[in-house]
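Usage example:
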Amino acid sequence: MESLDSAIALVGYGIAALGPGIGIGLIAGNAVQAMARQPEAAGLVRTNMILGIAFAEALALIGFVLFFLV
Amino acid sequence: MDQLILAATSCDTVNEVVCAPADPVEFFEFARTPILMGLAGLIVVVSLVVAFARPKVVPGRFQMIMESLVDIPRNLGKDVIGHGAEKFYPLLVSLFLFILVGNAFEVTPFINFPITSRMAVSGSLALLVWFVFVVTGVAKQGVGYFGHLLWPPGIPVAIKPVVGIIEFVSVLIIRPFSLAVRLFANLVAGHTMLSLLLGSAVWFLIAGQGVGGRLIGLAWGTFGIAIYVFEILVAFLQAYVFTLLTSVYIGSSLHPEH
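Running the assembly step on the lines above writes:
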């Protein structure tokens, strides 16, 4: 076979996207619950949810970029 | 096909799916990225001037749109930074509008190229934010800023060295790096998906074999248009997230948590 580098990089990205996927799901799920419990705090919860999603997604995107570096 | 893409020289859909980008402008050797950066800056400045040159108390339509656009980063600064945020409104508004217009270039019909998908643009914006929040911290708290940063008060003496290293890497290295990579990778991913999906849709429609081959192009085209709409959302969201994180970092420099 030719070099397996790209294939391994692709599998690596796939594994790296597992954690943030679950993490973002947890963040969004808890945010929706919080907004349902206290609708007055929806704005505050929404801002913090976006913040948390950005942090979790950054890890998946670092994996995505590293795929192209290989 | 050539006429649909600005700044492309030749698109030979039978042999070459990818259109060759135009030669750099000969005079100053500019490629398309600096030209588009200048265009984005020009669009932001001109819209702000046109909207707010002669502001009316009862705003016209354009002034209302620009007011709501400018209010987004200002309210972010006010909520997140809190006290002392007024000095940073120009920075936040400029960052937000420039990144918004730069990202929106991915979905404008003749310029399907987001300038923030070049690491130079995204990286220098993150570098600017890093500079701002470190200098703000030093200006506000003197050299003790680094002391408070690396060793937040209340850490047991035994683990101080470890916490110092962790905090150093987390605040001074990971923050700007992740800021740059988040913006960059989101836009690169979107641009790649759009190029692949819509490019292959056109390729199949033009050069597919038989009716089935051409219909696959339609499927790809539909999916491509769905991703196109999603990219509009991503453009706004990434600008918002960048500005939000900038405010968070500036806030943590101005008012360190106790």
